[in-house]
Structures are given as structure tokens and as C-alpha cells.
Amino acid sequence: MSTSESVPTDLVIGDDGLARPPWAASSDLLRAYYDSEWGMPVTDERGVFERLSLEAFQSGLAWSTILAKRPRFREAFADFDPDAVAAFGPADHERLMNDAGIVRNRAKITATIGNAQAAVRLREDGGLADLVWSFRPETTPAPRSMAELPTQTPESVAMAKALKKRGFSFVGPTTAYALMSAIGLVDLHLVGSHRRGCSGLWD
């Protein structure tokens, strides 16, 4: 490999001297999320349900939009407690549709409530977190540029299929892979980023 090929691209050196991908260097909010959360293992039911829900709401939108609204999402959806959200009725649905602090998409709201109900049912078969983590691949990508980042993999396709079979919706292969990267099943930090390997699960 030549020297030019070994140098990671698409990294931005911040004023703190640390290397990040462009999206993580574009705002203080995204930088804080990247530095402290993205790619760190999340293995509890509520945490996985929250991130699955937010990834579904993000579909078609910028992640920065969802992240900025996350505090209000948490308030509106009972801190993403599956039992509480599973009990939401028509009045809650309309309350959410009238809440300007979240993404008011009827299909996504309906899906989130239905997914909470599916998560509660799934406890009889090991639970949401165990199901999601069962799709952790044997290896993780080692992208050196944004162009090398995959958007879905055989594991995310299989995960989406398994979740849909158990009653989840708005969980296609791309959303499933975004979830995998967000909660540490894969390490999509670019080689050379100061966060590469932060989960402790991958070399």
C-alpha cells in the first residue's frame, strides 16, 4: 500500500486537535454526540428501543434534526419506556400529532407505538436487545473515507426481516444498519478518527 493510500481521507481536525468525519465536525451538538455516544454499546431494552425509534423517525431527514429534537421526543414518548408507549391510545396519538417539538409523521408515530407493543411481546422470546445483538457480525468494516461506508449489509437485511416478522415496522435494512452502527454492533468510525475502537468490542 502506498503512503497516499494509507492516509485516511474525509477527516476533519478540530480545534481540539482531534480527527472526526465531516458530519461530526459540523456542529457542537453533533460533535458531542459523536464524541460521547455514537458507536458505544447499548444493550438494554429501553436504550435499543429509543435508538430504533429515532432511526425510524430520521428516515428521509437529517440526523441533526432528530438529535436536536431528542429531548422533546423523550418527553413525548415517556422516555421511550416500551411499556408506557405500548399503552398509548388514540388520544396520545393525536397529542403527538399536535406536538411541534417532534417529527409529526402519522405513519412513524403509529409505527413507534406498534413497535413498543412488539418489544413487549418479544420479551417472551429473549427481548429486543438480545434479538438485535444476535446480528452482530464477525468482523466490522474499516472505512477510510465516507464513500467506503456501507448503508446495509447481509446482517442488517436479516435483522430487518427478523424484526418485521415479530411485528416491527419502519425497520428496513438501511435503518437496521444505522441502528447497528449507533449502538456499537459495528464500528463505522473512519480509520484515523479519535473514536475508532471506542466501543471496546472491535480492534
TrEMBL record:
GO terms for molecular function: DNA-3-methyladenine glycosylase activity; metal ion binding. Transmembrane segments: none annotated. Keywords: Metal-binding, Zinc. The keyword Zinc applies. Gene3D superfamilies: Hypothetical protein, domain 2. It comes from Kocuria subflava. This is DNA-3-methyladenine glycosylase I. SUPFAM superfamilies: DNA-glycosylase (SSF48150). GO terms for biological process: base-excision repair. Zn(2+) binds at residue 189. InterPro entries: Adenine_glyco, DNA-3mA_glycosylase, DNA_glycosylase. The keyword Thylakoid does not apply.
